[in-house]
Amino acid sequence: MRARWVIVPLLVLVATRGACRDDEPALRVATFNIEDFPKDRRQIDGAFAELEKLEVDVIAVQEIVDPALFAAEAVNRLGGAWQFVAESTTPRTTHPTHHLGVLFDRRTWTLVNTMLHDDTRLGSTHKPTFEVRLRPTGGGEVVRFLVVHLKAGGENADIRAQQHLALAKIAAYRDERTVMLGDFNSTGDVDRTGIAALARRTSLVWASQELECSAFWSRDDGCFRSRLDHVLTWQAAARVEAAGGCATHGCEWEASCPTYANDVSDHCPVIVVVE
Predict the structure, then answer these.
(1) How many domains does the chain divide into?
(2) Which domain holds residue 86?
């Protein structure tokens, strides 16, 4: 039986097919690939220092190796109102490694349910899509969060193209306000064309389209930036930005990557606000 984590404490955000009503909270969401969390105590401290600064209610995370530790740290550092739900991305026959998760603030959002979609596995060992449905605590429409971590590698654009089609199918499963977010591993123009097509198929807005960078790429010839992490929302966003090392070090090439990339993650949090 697949292990399913439902752990108390952390973030919220909502999206689907209509504007936020006056009596509903604005959607303040972020996505953050925290590379192989937890690598060490320095990363734990650094990652949660970044999370504390985001000023959002919902955070989607990728590459969480120890979800119980992540949940405990969230409660200790962010407070008991935060809840974490997560799901393993590995095949059922292997030892769990990376998890997809959503951290949300229960003062703003209430958990409705979670679901794992295997469509993006493509019948192979690729990662599934994790769906988390949240409702505003004061009442209102449910928002679906579809957390993704697509196949990595510039040579795997064809696999990601198939995963884009699978995501369109998943999005059509429910007619609700939807936010699709995570590590799309969009390494080039072919991927960006695919994400644009995905937005059209699903009637979602590619909120993060104009971001200049969201990740660091360390190579022998320097530290390059890339736009791997994205957020699609049911309506246009009021604010979109990359935080963390991308905010402090910018998106231009450097001779070497900042210490953030080694100490915290090679990805930066991406924040989206829908009002």
Answers:
(1) 1
(2) 4-274
For residues 58 and 11, the answer to whether their CB atoms sit within 8 Å is: yes
Per-residue pLDDT of 81-91, as tens digits, reads 999 999 999 87
Q: Is the omega angle on the peptide bond into residue 96 within 30 degrees of 0, that is, cis?
A: no
Question: What is the CATH number for 74?
Answer: 3.60.10.10
The string of DSSP letters for the chain reads ---EEEES-B-----BSSPPPTTSPPEEEEEEEEEEE-S-HHHHHHHHHHHHHS--SEEEEEEES-HHHHHHHHHHHH-TTEEEEEEE-S-TTS----EEEEEEETTTEEEEEEEEE-GGGTTTTS--EEEEEEEETTS---EEEEEEEPPPSGGGHHHHHHHHHHHHHHHTT--SEEEEEEE----SHHHHHHHHHHHHHHT-EETTTT-S-SEEEEETTEEEEE--EEEEESS--SEEEE-HHHHHH-SS-BSS--HHHHHT-SB--EEEEE-
For 191-205, write each residue's pLDDT tens digit: 999 999 999 999 999
- CA distances to 6, 31, 54 from 132, rounded to whole Å, are 11, 14, 20
Tokens for 208, please give them.
Answer: 């993060």
On whether the pTM is more than 0.85, the answer is yes
pLDDT tens per residue across span 166-180:
999 999 999 999 999
